[in-house]
Amino acid sequence: MAVNGAVERLVFLGPPGAGKGTQASRVAAHLGLVKLSTGDILREEVRQGTPLGQKVEGYMKAGDLVPDPVILEVMEAAMTRAGGKFLLDGFPRTLGQAESLDQLLAARNWSLDAVVLLEVPDEEIVERLTARRVCPRCQRVYHLIYDPPKNDEVCDECGTPLVQRPDDQEEVIRRRLDVYRAQTEPLVAFYERRGLLRRVNGQGEVEEITRRILHVLGEA
Ligand code: AP5
What we know:
- The protein is of the alpha/beta class.
- The protein has helices at residues 20-31, 38-48, 51-62, 68-81, 95-107, 122-130, 170-184, 186-193, 206-216, and strands spanning 9-13, 34-37, 86-89, 114-119, 132-134, 141-143, 197-201.
- Strand 5 and strand 6 (141-143) form a beta hairpin.
- Bound molecules: BIS(adenosine)-5'-pentaphosphate.
């Protein structure tokens, strides 16, 4: 945390579909942080067909995690570009990534201010993700029922036709939930032991959840 108490470095943790991306955009804007979403960064590489994109596409489509060394390289560069003030959405996701993040931060004399865990039950996750639509251009996220675009499946911000993510098929969602339980959930205890974990109920209105997050961060 900065000398004046401002929050500078956050991690958002939670199962797929918990609302990490939705809330990360709002909270990062409120706190003046750069949102670094591993999923968005990797999907853009896939869309552009870069060598990195070709390497990660198969893992993402299957709902599996991309190997740690690939993610670490991408995130180290992104955090440096962000000048040390960032909100990490979707990273770290394994104990190995969390330990590497510690080393990376320590080498720069940085530390995490908090880790926000968004909690949502599995049944609601499947409902959220099967009706999610995203803008492939500006990355804005919609939900066909809870947060629909104004015009039929076209982005409100940039007019681009919305798409469904290939990993938002029910079978792949269930696989992603299994991967979360096996590989990412151990991070809850890891950050709880360090006194960094802030649990937030991820069910309810989007605005209300943003208020809850800012409250646990001492920012509202
Ligand atoms: P990533 O893109 O990070 O996917 P994820 O963690 O599965 O999370 P999602 O983006 O699905 O959900 P979210 O929590 O952001 O929810 P959202 O706000 O969109 O990762 C994708 C893949 O990339 C991974 O499977 C892996 O292959 C790879 N990858 C990424 N990071 C990696 C890493 N560190 N290591 C290795 N591999 C990695 O909301 C979901 C829906 O719900 C939306 O439709 C939204 O409108 C709606 N919604 C949001 N809030 C509410 C609310 N309060 N009420 C009702 N609906 C809501």
